[in-house]
Target: Molybdate transport system ATP-binding protein
Amino acid sequence: MLHVAIGKSLGAFALNVAFDAPAGVTAVFGRSGSGKTSVVNAVAGLLQPDAGKIAVGDKVLYDRQCRINLRPQHRSVGYVFQDARLFPHMSVHRNLTYGGTHDMARVIDVLGLGDLLHRRPAGLSGGEKQRVALGRALMSAPQILAMDEPLAALDAPRKAEILPYIERLRDEVQIPILYVSHDVSEVARLATTLVILEAGQVVASGPVGTVLSRPDVVPLLGVRDAGAVIGMKVAGRLLDDGLTELTFSGGRILMPGNLGKLGQSVRLRIPAQDVILATEPPKGISALNVLSVTITALEQGRGPGVAVGLRAGTDQLLARVTRRSAGRMGLAVGQQVYAIIKATAVGPEDIGG
Ligand SMILES: Nc1ncnc2c1ncn2[C@@H]1O[C@H](COP(=O)(O)OP(=O)(O)OP(=O)(O)O)[C@@H](O)[C@H]1O
Model:
């Protein structure tokens, strides 16, 4: 577990953050200038806080009161930047082993680097370069992996190519991974824990599914990007219709395409704007997915919208309706309603394993 509780003045900007990052991916999310890079730099030892403490398990990296401030090279933080920063004159193999050879065979396997070892960085695609940078960071036997917008410089196909590797890392490497991003779909797919920053402060943090389904988080993510993430299981395939049946605590839903093998866990992102509410069981509609849900919260936005928190079984969903509709329907906390989810609403980039 990584523990961060620090303060730092950077000119007119004040950073004041506290959060815990367990094993898995902790996404540090926020608008440009919210302080994401400063947090990661403080953990890596590239930025010295004015106050507070940073520790990984029992190992203290920084403690103002005890006057501890380990140098970057003594912190065991593997840092992957937006640009891969490989040595151009060295082969992939030499780049990888530059900082150490920890768990080499497994790192090469997990990141699919076997065929690249004798190549030079100049001949690699952006996604391949980032995989090498990740491999190099891992071979230095880090206790924390820090990634600052590692996919930001990549186009959509290269991003899609590298995301499964980062998912494997998340699931196989038992260290905290700090992952800076301002892309909600990336966060929804990769994060275990989510920390949202605004103007140098933590405004929401916790397990990704819990934070993303909070109605008060909608304005922080933007109306178009807000939506719940729910872990589901593949329960069947309707081959003739090209649909996959998924089950979760709130019932079953059908989604287009082949989303995995029977019994496989998938993470489904359901954008709030694609959930429609009805006070009566809907009849004669084309949508395949109707769930019985209970309203847990109603959050007025600054604009014409209301974010509606919904409980489906033990999971949380999020819907967005206009204030006018909420008033007309008489929506209230505790009310049982029907959530209609458009089956085409979820794109494949939003479905992670
Ligand atoms: N050395 C510095 N001196 C003064 N201000 C600084 C310094 N470093 C960062 N800042 C300011 O601190 C704020 C946070 O910067 P930071 O790079 O951490 O944000 P960010 O969320 O990572 O942004 P981006 O997504 O654009 O990279 C910004 O307003 C930035 O201008």
User: Anything to note?
Assistant: Residues 2-207 form a domain with the Rossmann fold fold (CATH 3.40.50.300). The chain has two domains: 2-207, 227-231+263-352. The chain has a mean pLDDT of 91. The first strand starts at residue 2 and ends at 10.
